[in-house]
Specification:
The structure holds 2 protein chains of 2 kinds. By secondary structure, chain A is an alpha/beta fold. Chain A folds into 2 domains: 211 residues, P-loop containing nucleotide triphosphate hydrolases (Rossmann fold, 3-Layer(aba) Sandwich); 69 residues, ACT-like. Chain A, domain 2 (Alpha-Beta Plaits, 2-Layer Sandwich), CATH 3.30.70. In chain A, 38% of the residues lie in helices and 28% in strands. Chain A has 12 helices and 13 strands. A 6-stranded mixed sheet of chain A has the order 5-6-7-3-8-9, with helices on both faces. In chain A, α5 runs antiparallel to α7 and α10 packs antiparallel against α11. The two termini of chain A are 39 Å apart. Chain B is an all-alpha fold. Chain B has one domain. Chain B is built from 12 helices and no strands. Chain B starts with 9 loop residues before the first helix and ends in a 6-residue tail after the last helix. The chains are: A alpha/beta, B mainly alpha. The interface between A and B is large, with 48 and 34 residues. The complex binds adenosine-5'-diphosphate and magnesium ion. The site of magnesium ion (MG) has 3 residues of chain A, from α2.
Chain lengths: 338, 275
Amino acid sequence: MENALHVENLAKSYKRSMRHPGLLGAFKGLFSSKTQEFQAVKGISFSINRGERVGLIGENGAGKSTTLKMLTGIIAPTSGKLEVLGLLPWKQRRELALNIGVVFGQRPQLLWDIPVRETFRLLKAMYRIPSDVYEVTYKEAVRRLDLEPLLGTPVRLLSLGQRMRCDLAASLLHAPAIAFLDEPTIGLDLTVKEQVREYIRDMQDKFGVTLLITTHDLKDITEVCDRLLLLDKGTLLFDGSLKAFEKKFANESRIVADLERPATASALRKLSAEMKKHGGIVTGGEGHKLIVSYRKEGSAPVLTQILLKRQKVADLTLEKTDIETIVTRIYRKKPGKN
Amino acid sequence: MRPLQPPLTFTQNLESYRSLLVRCLKGSFSYKSTTINNLLTTLVAYAITIMIWHQVYQQNPNHVIPSTQMYVYLLLAGAVNYAMSLGMEFRIGQRIRTGLIATDLLKPIDFQMAQAIQSISDGLFNGALSFVVFSLGFFLFGTQMLPSSPSAFLLFLVSFVLGFTVIYGIGFVFVQGAFYTYSGYGIFAARNALQFTFSGFSAPLDYYPPLLRTITDYLPFRHTIYTPVAIYMGWVTGPAAYLLLLQQLGWTVGLFLVGKFLMGRALKQLEVQGG
Ligand SMILES: Nc1ncnc2c1ncn2[C@@H]1O[C@H](COP(=O)(O)OP(=O)(O)O)[C@@H](O)[C@H]1O
Ligand SMILES: [Mg+2]
């Protein structure tokens, strides 16, 4: 497999100027320039092959955008190795630009004062997109993202969602080798999110675009990507397939029961004791609802039987933990969030 | 999978520039009321300037330059200045502050060239409008607004274009400050004040006190207004005029190189704002 990008011990620290409080402080700040180093990315390493579909997740401030900024060449790393399509991004930014497509969440590349169509035409010239490619990418974008009614509108009159769709289309018009998409679905409603995912998938199928997507909506990942990078305060916490991620973290399933009558305290104690012998933990027991969680695969039949024998059950569901739940749990576990 | 694209050749870049120029020009037309506003304010300002000078001449008619020549100079300087008003500092300053600069840097087109194209667009747009200022002069002073000779007019055209490349060069050098301050306002104010003082916009340089006059000789600003207008009016002719054109060319090249160098340094420390 051909390598798309390679990163080794990549780190970035920002200098933050210490601000004195108040108006007088702001004035002082004009003369003194005390700065403080802040490590946004703390030495991460990974490789991505051509055609891979990778999701990059992490809490706010984890360093996702900083990583993408380094990969696309608009900021220089503080230390570490970095190669994208065989180029050194911040030194060869322009050569790289021809072969990548970038969406930066709330920062559209569209020309503000003139209709969307004009930006598309400009990009066609700028990226020297061959007509046969443009035919496909343009038509596909217009069809999948419903752009037809927007094409003649000046960009500043578009709504956020409309602009995001146009911007995404603009960034993939030249069918780039790699697409770096920083929160491409931010602020979109559910149906449009679905459209956007379909469009990205489609472009991936047709042109083998390598995808690196950051998002807070895990559906973007589960529906578009097959590999996951989890950043946490500048360090890489996980790198692997979605399957491997679930295996590693999703080792808990649950039986959720709706009881006909709330269980008495003594009945609950007995139930807990017996469940425990078979690896089940009774967690919720208030009112009609009862939850039994377990870790060992294949325990569901036994635990369910015990439950049905001891209680009158009105309804029953089995829940596997999905990626969203896992990720929320990982985020929540850590102390000292910012 | 599309094969990787090699860097663009010079002619391919020209096509991008042409396409960009067209979009910039189209963009210029989207702020009609601002444009009209600017133009009217400018016209009023020149009318007032001329009235002030009229007063001055009435009190003391023995000036170096006869009164009508003075008025003609001021209106020409005004028209040239209008054609050369660039919004570069504001535009780039704002893009740096909001982080939109990222999208500019991610284009396969050279940033400095893209800014030059935008400035040419500004120049063409404002240049067309500057005819309104010129017409005001024509309305007031008739044929005295015409160039001193056909050859002076040709030299003026060349000098005007070079004046434009000089002002672009100055603007681009100043703009580099915005990469550090993350705002273009102060920088625009500074450049504008210098331009106002040292270009010959408010009075012919021949009127300046000796010290100030000497300073203007060492700065590029006079080449944006005084030089082309003086050539137009026939104050400078022959070899002296050619020498001025050469100086303009020298400043253009020098400023371009300085701008390129500063830009390289500025980008190294740029921290594109916003997540
Ligand atoms: N230009 C900057 N100057 C100082 N600190 C910054 C700058 N850009 C980002 N940061 C900080 O670096 C950290 C990572 O930011 P970012 O990469 O934008 O996070 P994410 O995209 O994962 O939300 C944050 O704590 C943020 O405050
Ligand atoms: Mg971000």
